[in-house]
Amino acid sequence: MIRFLAKLWRWFDHASVVLAVAFMGGVAVQLLLLVDVDRRDPIQEWVKLEAVNSPIRQGSVLIVNVERIKVRDDCAVISVRRAQDEDGKSHDLPDVIWEGGSSEEGNLLLPYGTQSLMLGSYLLQVELEYLCPGGLSFVHHPPDVRFRVVE
Q1: What are the angstrom distances between the C-alpha of 138 and each of 35, 73, 128?
Q2: CATH label of the domain that carries residue 89
Q3: Gap between the Cα atoms of 63 and 115, Å rounded
Q4: Would you say residue 32 has pLDDT above 70?
Q5: Is 17 in the same domain as 90?
Q6: Which CA distances in Å does 19 have to 7, 26, 51, 57?
Q7: Are 97 and 85 in contact (CB under 8 A)?
Q8: Residues 136, 87 share a domain
Q9: What are the backbone dihedrals phi and psi of residue 64, each rounded to the nearest 5 degrees, phi first?
């Protein structure tokens, strides 16, 4: 009789673990179905990008006016920045992690550090990765911006 009860206890013990795992899986699926994740790309359109203060003096900050249509504000932005010179050589500029500006603002004036650039003409090239809730990310390559560095 004791052996029977011991086997029965082990069976209940294993069955309770299986039931607990199944219950937690069911709860997780229900939570995922209930959570409303915004899957929209934060940027709908790049309207216009232009250098506001070009030509700039060597070592100065380039200011770029960015016009875009943005539809959500809950994504962090990683901005990887480069300047391509007339010979096609790429020069790294300081990268930035930021909140990306409000969707209510159509225009942004953004500073770009150019301290490492020599005299000449350049194309500002930016890669933006928007990191959104729910593990979603969106990568953008806005239009290049021409600018010059002078003495």
Answers
A1: 20, 13, 8
A2: 2.60.40.10
A3: 13
A4: no
A5: no
A6: 18, 10, 63, 70
A7: no
A8: yes
A9: -120, 130
pTM here? Answer: 0.73
Distance of alpha carbon 106 from alpha carbon 125, whole angstroms:
21
Same structural domain, 50 and 91:
yes
Extract the tokens encoding 69. 């249509």
Nearby residues of 126 by Cβ (< 8 Å), 6 or more positions away: 79, 80, 81, 82, 141, 142
Q: Are residues 109 and 66 in the same domain?
A: yes
What is d(CA 122, CA 103) in angstroms, rounded to the nearest whole number?
Answer: 29
pLDDT tens digits, 74-116: 999 999 999 999 999 999 999 988 888 899 988 999 999 999 9
Domain that holds residue 107: 43-150
Facing residues of 138 across strands?
A: 130
Domains held by the chain: number: 2
Residue 142: left (phi > 0), alpha (psi -120 to 50), or beta? Answer: beta
